[in-house]
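[recover] target loaded
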């Protein structure tokens, strides 16, 4: 466990993991950065989970590319000002994208996912699976002062200028 955590975190927490490593394996020639990553046991690998996240990353790539066009045209300044509509080819893909808070993964205020034929003006990303299309929409409502999402329920709770989620967290 020690070896895995220190080697996996070393690229991100460079100095911290080096100090942790040297506490256990001191010496001038010792460094967490000089070792190889230990091989991952086969039983830790989950093909279904890898496929799920591959689908999520592909959809996110299309959403963020669509938002970048709106940002470059000065329609939005930040992705949290968006509430895009995502069109997918089948129910399985929709189930994957709605199995988690996809709006948080795309860093938008809200997002809707539909199994339907995308409108002709929907954005698709060249060089990717054309089964994912995005129609841009601006987020509706006011900005939550805690999470910065733009939602219609902001201001309708005990804590002024917060959304339902943040109001619950503050209560």
């Amino acid at each position: 466990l020690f070896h895995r955590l220190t080697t996996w975190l070393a690229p991100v927490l460079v100095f911290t993991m080096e100090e942790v490593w040297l506490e256990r394996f001191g010496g001038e020639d010792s460094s967490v950065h000089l070792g190889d990553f230990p091989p991952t046991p086969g039983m830790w690998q989950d093909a279904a989970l890898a496929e799920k996240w591959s689908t999520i990353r592909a959809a996110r790539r299309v959403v963020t590319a669509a938002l970048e066009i709106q940002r470059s045209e000065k329609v939005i300044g930040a992705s949290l000002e968006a509430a895009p509509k995502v069109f997918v080819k089948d129910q399985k893909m929709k189930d994957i994208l709605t199995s988690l808070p996809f709006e948080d993964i795309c860093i938008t205020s809200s997002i809707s996912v539909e199994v339907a034929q995308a409108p002709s003006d929907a954005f698709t990303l060249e060089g990717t699976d054309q089964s994912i299309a995005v129609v841009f929409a601006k987020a509706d409502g006011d900005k939550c002062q805690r999470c910065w999402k733009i939602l219609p329920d902001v201001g309708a709770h005990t804590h002024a200028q917060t959304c339902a989620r943040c109001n619950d967290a503050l209560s």
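[recover] notes: The longest helix spans residues 47-72.
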